Amino acid sequence: MSEVMCRGADFHLPSAISAIEASIHEGSTLRNWAGPVGGHLSGYMNWIRATEQRLAGQFRRADVEHFLLTQRYWEARRFVEVVHLEDLGPGNTVVGQHPATAVVISEATARISDLEEFLAGLTRRRDRYGSLTSPVLVPDTNTFLHYTFFRDAKWSDLTQSADVHLAIPLVVVEELDRQKFSRDPRISDRARGVVRALDCLLASAADGLPQLPGRGSLEVLVEESDHVRLPIPDAEIVETCADLAAFVPTTTSVVTGDLGMKVRARSMGVRVVDLPDEWIWPLPRADAPAAGAHP
Q1: Cβ proximity of 227 and 3 under 8 Å
Q2: Are 158 and 90 members of one domain?
C-alpha cells in the first residue's frame, strides 16, 4: 500500500474508501468557503478533526497524524490561537485578505490532492485484485531455492483448488538476484535458473498475467515508488502478504517451509501454507553438477 498511510488493525476496504471520499467532499466544500476568516479557520480545524476520526483505525494512527498535522496545519492553528476575530476589523474579515486564508486554502488543497491520489491507488488495487477467484500464495525466497522448481511444482495441491495465483514480492526477486552470486555454486546455479525462468515467463506475458500451465497465474508484486521496506526481508514478505489480503476476496497465504517465517506470519494473523517435505530439493554434492538448476 502507498506509504501515505498504511492500513490499521480495523482496515476494511469499502469503509476506508468511503471515509476518504467523505473527507475529500468535505475538504472541497471548505476550500470553496466564501465567508469570514473565522469561519474558514474553524471549518478547517473541524475538517482535520473529522478526517482524523474517520481514518483512524482504518489506517495507522501515526500515519494519519503525520499526513494531516503538517507544518501548514500548525501555522493555521497558530492563527486560531492568537487572532481575536473581534479585533480584525471589516477589512480582514473578507476571505483573501488575511494570511490565514492563504494558509488554509493551500493546505486544504494539498491534503485533498494527496487524498485523491491515495484513493486512486486503493481503487486501482481493488479493481485489480477484487475479481480474483483463485487462492493467492505468497512464497518466500527459500521456496524457490530449496524446494521443487517453481515451474514444475503442483501449487494447486497446496490449496486443494483447481488453480492458484502466485504473488511474488519484489524483495524475493531481489534476494534471488543476490543469490546468483552465492559462494555455494549449487545455490547460485539454482538462483540463476529460477531468475531466468521467471524472466522468460514475465516477458512472455507483457500485457497480462504469466500462466503456470495447468496451475494458474503468476505475478511479481511491484512496489509503490514511495514504499519503505521493513529492515528484515521475512518481515517484508509477511507484510506484503497481509497487505494483499486486504484486497483479495479469496484466501491469501504465505508459503514457506521455514519455522521462523511460520511463527512470524502467524503472529501477525497471516495464513500459512506449509511446504511438504517431499517438495524439498536435496542439494547435490558440492563437487557435482547442479542438476536442479533448471537452466
Answers
A1: yes
A2: no
Q: Is residue 7 part of a domain?
A: no
Are 118 and 174 found together in one domain?
Answer: no
Whole-structure pTM value? 0.82
Q: Domain check: are 144 and 251 in the same one? A: yes
Would you write out the chain's pLDDT as a tens digit for each of its 295 residues? 445 788 898 999 999 999 999 999 999 988 776 555 566 788 888 999 999 999 998 999 999 999 999 998 998 888 766 654 444 444 444 444 567 777 888 899 999 999 999 999 999 999 999 999 999 999 999 999 999 999 999 999 999 888 999 999 999 999 999 999 999 999 999 999 999 999 999 888 766 778 876 678 999 998 877 778 889 999 999 999 999 999 999 999 999 999 999 999 999 999 999 999 999 998 776 665 544 455 4
Domain co-membership, 80 together with 104 = yes
